[in-house]
Amino acid sequence: MTASNRINWLSVLQGWSMLLVVIGHVTLTNVFQNPETPVSAEIERIIYSFHMPLFMFISGFLFYLTKIGRDKGYAETIGDKAKRLLIPYAAFTCVTFFLKYAFNPLMRRPVDFSWSEILDIITFKSNPLAEMWFVSTLFVLFLFFPVYKWSLGSRLRSGVVFCAALLIYFFFPKDIELFCISYASSYLLFFYTGILVSKYGGGKFLDNPALLSCCTALMVFCSLFPGIPLLNIFVGIFFSLTLCMFLSRRFPGLFGSFREYTFQIFLMGIFFQMAIRFAYARLGMDCLYWPLYVVSILLALYMPVLISRVIRKTGSKALARCFGL
């Protein structure tokens, strides 16, 4: 696999994973997996069985390519990640907080202007924009950069850390909200798996049509007969990998209209989807469900792209930082 092919399938994979997130966030009725909308509920169930671990896997894969594999220093790496993640985190948290506070009576999760609420936000215990858990968890995982770097010194060390991540996934407490410790413990396994696949060139072994057929069959089976959550997750991850490798060779420009703006879509897309949910609730017309479902996806994908391009044209570095550009 050439370097250009590797970059292209990764870009397709990023676009694919972002599409899954956007579809998963539609929830027009404001009820997750609503039995009254069985088709979209089933789509949500399948997507949520693996899509966030897939995002963590991609993050780990890219972390090796851009930082660990290039022998970057700890201070440089964490400083870069802080600018990339924590500035948008702070900006979107502040904007969301004051918007919710202004319209508290209409909010499903109202906010309280208090020191305890502010402290919870600073320590990553909670956030007025619920989706921000991913940003804070990812930053916490980056902090263990020296452990990942040390582990890649030999296959034995890699195996030990992988087994440790597996044990942490199963046995670490799931209710420690401070600094997203429980979230980090749940997603470390997938993040580190991405690092290992990147380090040991797993991509070249996955670029196989026969393996794609096998992964597709397993994906269908796990979707029809969901049983072991961890199995479902890894099947979903490797199905996505093999699918995107296959698609990138035949459609190299796939998702090209938005795949370079995945972080901005993650940050902004949910606001447009909230607006569509509000419109659907006000209109109260079942016949509009699927048209608005599609509109929700399109707005969440392309409005952030449009806004990001406008911000870049302004030339404001500070504004660009706030939007993760």
From N to C, what is the helix and strand string? HHHHHHHHHHHHHHH
Largest beta sheet, briefly? none
Q: What structural class results from the helix and strand content?
A: mainly alpha
* Distance separating the two termini: 29 Å
Number of strands: 0
Described by the principal axes of the CA atoms, the overall outline is globular
- The chain-level mean pLDDT equals 86
Unreliable sequence segments: 1-5
In what range is the share of β-strand residues? Answer: under 5%
Radius of gyration: 20 Å
- The assembly state of the depicted protein chains is single chain
Helix content: over 70%
Number of helices: 15
Estimate nothing, just give the exact number of structural domains. 2
Describe this structure in words.
- The structure is a single chain.
- The protein has 325 residues and is mostly helical.
- Helices cover 73% and strands 0% of the residues.
- It folds into 2 domains: 144 residues, no CATH class; 149 residues, no CATH class.
- The chain is globular and about 55 Å long.
- The two termini are 29 Å apart.
- The N terminus is likely disordered.
Short description:
This protein has 325 residues and is mainly α.
List the helices and strands and how they pair.
Blueprint lengths: L2 H22 L13 H11 L2 H18 L5 H29 L12 H8 L10 H10 L2 H7 L3 H17 L9 H19 L2 H5 L2 H16 L4 H22 L11 H22 L5 H26 L2 H6 L3
Helix pairs in contact: 1-2, 1-3, 1-12, 1-13, 3-9, 3-12, 4-6, 6-9, 7-8, 8-9, 11-12, 13-14
